[in-house]
C-alpha cells in the first residue's frame, strides 16, 4: 500500500457490513460510510467553486464530518478543518486564507459564518440538518469520480493562526494513507479494537491517531460530538471502547471527576496522546487500568518520538528513526547543539539556560509538505537545510528528550495553538489600555496559560469587574484567549526600536507585583496574593513541572 492513497484504503471497505461508526443512537456500517462518502463527493464536485476549490467543514464530531473528509478523498478535493473556537475576523481570515468556496456546517454553527462577509454564494453553504440537505445529496450529479494521485492535497490542518498569515499544514492523501498504516504499528492499535473519538476533528490528533488507522484496520469508531469528562467512562462502557486518543488536558478533566470503586470496570486497554503530565498519566493508569502511550509530534509530520522501555517518566522519549534523520536540540541563535541537561538530587534541572533549545532535524524534512499559501513560514521551518520545529526541549545524557514549551510568540492552551497578536489587538480596545502585551506562562499540568501585561492611561486604575465584562463583550475573542493572569505595569518594557520587549515579562511571569488572576472558568478576576501564589507553585511541584518556572 506504500505509494497508495487514502481513497484506496477507504474503497477496500466498500462491501464491508461491519460497524464503522457509532454516534448518539446512529450506527453506520463501512458499506454505508463509503456510500455516504461517495454521495458527498458528488455534491462537492457539483457545487465546488473553481476559484475557491476547498471545502471548509465546521461541525461537531458526527458521521457527517467523517463522510465529508472521506468524500473529499474520493473526489480528489481538499477539506479544511475550521476551528469553531475562533471568532470574528480570525475565523473569517482562516476561511479566506485557505480558499474555502464551499462551507459545510449545521444550523447551530451557521451563525458563526453568516456575518463574516465571506462572499460565498448561499448554495455553497451546505447545512447538514436543513430539510433540503437529503434532497441535495440524492439529486447531485453522479459522474465518475476522478483518479487519485498520492500527491493530491486532502487536508489543511491549522496549527495556529495570526493576523493575515494563518498557518495550515498540508497533508496529502498519500501521507494520510501512510500514517493510517504506520499508526497501527507505532501506536499498537489492533483490528479487534473499538476506537473512542472525542477530540475535535479539525485536529490532526483526531484524524491521524484514530480515524485513519480505523480505515486501515476496519475498526469501529465511537464518536462523541464534543469531549465531555463526565461522560467519558459511560461512553467507554456503552461502546466497549478499548482505545482512545487524547491531548494533554483532557486527562486532567477526566481525573477531576469523582473517583468510584468500579472505575476499572471498563474494556480500555490503550490510550495514545500528547502533553499529559507524568502525574496525570500515572493516575489515569492506576484509576482506569489502561496503559497510556505518550509521544511528541506535530501535524507537520517530521519529528516524532516514542518511549522505549526504560524511558524516564518525565521524558517524551527518543526520536523515531527515519532515514537521514538527525534530531538534536540546538541554541536557536547560534545553531550549536545544547549541552546535556543536568539535574540535582531532587531531579531539578540546574542548567536550563544552556540545555533548553529548539528541536531541529539536521537531516532536513523530506516528509514536510509545507504550509498552504505561506511560503515564508515554510521557508522558516527549513532554514539552512534543517527542519526547525518551533518547539523547545532539553535532552539528558542518555538522549531522552524533555518537552519545554513553544518558541516564538505562540501559546498552547488546552492543546490549542494561537498567536498573541489577535489577543493583543482585542485587549487594546479597552478604553483604559494604552498598550497590551500577551505571552505564555507555564501551566501547572500541561501547555501554557495566557498572561497579559497592560499599561493603562494616566490616572486609570485596573477595574477587575469591568475588565471581565469587557472581555465578555468581545465577540471575536477566541474561547481559549481570555488571560488567566493580568499584570498592570507603569510602563511597558521596550526595545531600542520601541517594540515591546516581552523577555523580562516572561521571566517575571506571575511573580511580579500587581497581578490579578482568573481562578476559574468565569471571566472574574481577583488579586493574586501570597496565598494564591504559594498554592499555585505547589501545583507545579505536584505535577513535576517546577523546572519550567524561572
Domain count: the total is 3
Query: Residue share in helices?
Result: 25-40%
How are strands sequenced across the largest beta sheet? 2-1-10-9-11-12-13
Q: What do we call the CATH homologous superfamily of the largest domain? A: ANL, N-terminal domain
Could you please describe the fold and organization of this structure?
This protein has 17 helices and 26 strands. By secondary structure, the chain is an alpha/beta fold. The longest helix has 18 residues, at 30-47. 44% of the residues are buried. The protein is globular, with a radius of gyration of 24 Å. β11 (243-247), α10 and β12 (270-274) form a beta-alpha-beta unit. α7 crosses α8. A seven-stranded mixed beta sheet has the order 2-1-10-9-11-12-13, sandwiched between helices. Strands 6-5-3-4-7-8 form a six-stranded mixed beta sheet, with helices on both faces. It folds into three domains: 6-226, ANL, N-terminal domain (Rossmann fold, 3-Layer(aba) Sandwich); 321-406, Luciferase, Domain 3 (Luciferase, domain 3, Roll); 410-548, GMP Synthetase, Chain A, domain 3, CATH 3.30.300.30.
